[in-house]
From TrEMBL:
EC number: 2.1.3.-
The protein's name: Carboxy-S-adenosyl-L-methionine synthase
Matches recorded under InterPro entries: CmoA (IPR005271), Methyltransf_25 (IPR041698), SAM-dependent_MTases_sf (IPR029063)
Binding sites annotated in the UniProt record for S-adenosyl-L-methionine: 39, 64-66, 89-90, 117-118, 132, 199
Classification via Gene3D superfamilies: Vaccinia Virus protein VP39
Keyword presence, rRNA-binding: no
Length: 242
C-alpha cells in the first residue's frame, strides 16, 4: 500500500534537487496521482496501444519504468507469442519495488526489469517503446540522440509512446495552464508550501519542451506519423509511428 506523499509538507531549509530516492519511491503512487492530471487515463491507454501494436517475437520497452505502472498495463493487454517487456530505470529504489509489483501478478508475457541508464540500453527488434514522463528528466542535449536510437531499434510500423509535461510558447496560455495544474494539486490536498517547495526542487531537474519541439524531432528523425493523443492542462502524451 502506497504511503501518502508528505515529502514537502514541512519547511525545508536547504532545498536540494529532486531525486527518485527511497523516500520518493515509498510515496510515488500517491505523489503521481495527485500531481499529474490524467495519469490514470494515460496508463490505461498505454495498455490499449500496446495491445494494438505489440507483435509476436518482438521486444517492448518501458524506459524510465519507475514502479512499473505502464509495464503492468501493457502486460495485461499484450497477448502475443514470444513477446517480452524490458523495463528500465536508473533508481535502485524504484527497480526494487518494480520487481515486487511485477512478481505479484502472473502473466504469460515475461518482464525483465533492469537497473540502468536508459541512454545505455540497446534498443532492438522493438514493436513498442514507452517513455512515460521520462524524456523531460534527461539533459536537453541527450534527447535527440535517445529518440534516434529508439527509432533505429523500432520495427517498421512500431510505435513510440511519449508522455511529458509541456511548456507553451504563448506566455498567457503557459501561465494559465501552470495555474490550472496548481489548482489541480490544491484540489488533491497539497498545500501552498508543498506546491512551492516541490516546484523549487524539480525546476533544475526537469526541463520540459513545447509540443512543437517534440514534433520537430519526430519529423527530423523520420517517423511517418506523430500526434498528441491526450492532453490535460500542461501534461500530455504523444505517439510516433515508424
Amino acid at each position: 500500500m502506497s504511503q501518502r506523499d508528505v515529502i514537502f509538507s514541512a519547511p525545508i531549509e536547504k532545498m536540494g534537487d529532486f531525486t527518485f530516492d527511497e523516500r520518493v519511491a515509498e510515496v510515488f503512487p500517491d505523489m503521481i496521482q495527485r500531481s499529474v492530471p490524467g495519469y490514470s487515463n494515460i496508463i490505461s491507454a498505454i495498455g490499449m496501444l500496446a495491445e494494438r501494436f505489440a507483435k509476436p517475437n518482438s521486444n517492448v520497452y518501458d524506459l524510465g519504468c519507475s514502479l512499473g505502472a505502464a509495464t503492468l498495463s501493457m502486460r495485461r493487454h499484450i497477448d502475443q507469442e514470444n513477446c517480452q517487456i524490458i523495463a528500465v530505470d536508473n533508481s535502485s529504489a524504484m527497480v526494487e519495488r518494480c520487481k515486487l509489483h511485477i512478481n505479484a501478478y502472473r502473466s504469460d508475457t515475461p518482464v525483465n526489469v533492469i537497473e540502468a541508464d536508459i541512454r545505455d540500453i540497446h534498443i532492438e527488434n522493438a514493436s513498442v517503446v514507452v517513455l512515460n514522463f521520462t524524456l523531460q528528466f534527461l539533459s536537453p542535449e541527450d534527447r535527440q540522440s535517445l529518440l534516434e536510437k529508439i527509432y533505429a531499434g523500432l520495427r517498421p510500423g512500431g510505435i513510440l509512446i511519449l508522455s511529458e509535461k509541456y511548456i507553451f510558447e504563448n506566455n498567457v496560455a503557459n501561465e494559465l495552464l501552470i495555474d490550472l495544474h496548481h489548482d489541480f494539486k490544491r484540489a488533491n490536498g497539497y498545500s501552498e508550501l508543498e506546491i512551492s517547495q516541490k516546484r523549487s526542487a524539480i525546476e533544475n531537474v526537469m526541463k520540459p519542451d513545447p509540443i512543437s519541439s517534440h514534433k520537430e524531432r519526430f519529423k527530423n528523425i523520420g517517423f511517418s506519423s506523430y500526434e498528441v493523443w491526450f492532453q490535460c492542462f500542461n501534461f500530455g502524451s504523444m505517439f510516433a509511428i515508424k
